Amino acid sequence: MRHPSRGHRRHSLAGQLFLMQAIVVAVVVTGGAGLASVKAERGTGDSARHQVIAVAAGIADAPTTAAAVTGADPSRVLQPYADQVQRDTGVDFVTIMRPDGIRYTHPNPAMIGKRFLGNTGRALAGHTFTETYTGTLGPSVRVVTPVFGSRHQVVALVSVGITVRTISAQVRAQVLVLVAVALIALAVGGVGTYLANARLRRHTHGMSTAELSRMYEYHDAILHTVREGLLLLSPDHRIVLANDGARELFRLPADVEGRHVAGLGLPEALTAALSGDVPCVDEIHLTRDRVVVVNKSAVTSGTRDLGSVVTLRDHTELQALSGELDSVRGFAESLRSQTHEAANRLHTVVSLIELGRTDEAVEFATAELEIAQRFTDQLMEAVAEPVLAALLLGKAAQANERGVELVVTPDTQVDDDAIPDGLEARDLVTILGNLVDNAIDAAADGEGRPPRVFVTVRADAGALVLRVADTGRGVESDAVRNVFRRGWSTKPGARPSGRGLGLALVAQAAARHGGRVDVDRDVGAVFTVTLPLHEEVNA
Prior knowledge:
Blueprint: H1 13-61, H2 63-69, H3 74-89, E1 93-97, H4 121-124, E2 129-135, E3 138-148, E4 154-163, H5 164-204, H6 209-225, E5 229-233, E6 239-242, H7 244-250, H8 268-275, E7 280-286, E8 291-301, E9 304-314, H9 316-354, H10 358-382, H11 386-401, E10 405-408, H12 425-444, E11 452-459, E12 463-470, H13 502-512, E13 516-521, E14 525-532
Parallel strand pairs: 10-11
Antiparallel strand pairs: 1-4, 2-3, 3-4, 5-6, 5-9, 7-8, 8-9, 11-12, 12-14, 13-14
């Protein structure tokens, strides 16, 4: 995928998220600070009103206040008292006055004896009230409350207030604190957002949303269109991803992601290859009905182990064609050998005729023809399946070249009805061809016994029975359970993955058609394959 240059590429996903998150954090913090400021201002005003009401009520209810206003010199008693209350409570002024508004006290002594600036009507009627009024100290929030005498008559008035300037100073102090907290919150949120997005940028490799979307679409299309199987395994050998090809080859369930390869029900050798740490290069493995070529390699990023990538190729058809090719090659070699032998016999016949011994020439020629024709006639009469007959004729010639006699037993009889449903000719070639090849090898390597291979093919009790025996050394009893495992072989070979495949293919083909393979011992090894003639249909 070609990436655009830095000058023209769009902002990365991490950058876009950082910008969005920074804006959200800024808006939230600014809005919260604004609301907190309004609430602080309103709360400070309410607090000021409650404060002046409480102070005024305390002064009005004090017995000394009512006693002083009826004395000879109220200002001399009340002015120090008012100054002390003002200092103790933090209010801006405490004014005690006569009912007609003449002041007894004031923060500015020059104002004592002058008329109070403000409303007093409601207080003279015996009620306490608050107002915002501009007096000698400027705009203020004040309260006016009556002082009652012994007969519950209004003998004086008390006014306590806090200037708007003082309230504003308190609000500014709270707002500055809120702004400082907001800036700290914004800084912390910005740093946290940057760190989170820096990590996201590393994981997305600085790609934009369009690039990520395009990459996903391409990768998803590739995974679903390639015919080869693909598995991504985690470092602990769990399935991270399986494409359609891998699911089909291994018959994987829909919820396979996250499962360990050991729990997929695959053959032991294949499970060991997938869960091992050793790379695989073109290893051939068998499933229940497939021949699969497996390649596995580790994936790392720097020093991190990301797991492994496994590619799978279906080798089933190719393996079947390879078996047929081997059979054709055997036929060709047999024809070449027979051509050579026919040439030798022809030279012998010609020489006998040149020597004038025509009767001996005829007898020699017809004897050779009768032997070959007798075997061919016997085989064609017993075996109606042409591919099977051709296979046995070719294997007989191949065995003869190696000094092994291939014997088709008299009880061999295969009619058209003796071929199981769904059994293709290539499956017959796979099963019988591999069994006969192994038997020829075993008989040729036998110890002192006449090298022979006995083949029996017949229908018996609703099944096709293929029996191949040899005069070799046989299969040891402790090796019987491993004989059909891929890789098991008694023959040396340079490539372990290429050996021990024939009997595994036989077992696979038999199982695919509902049959079984039995191993026994007579003179040498005896392999019997039983295939049901008709497929069972489950109700």
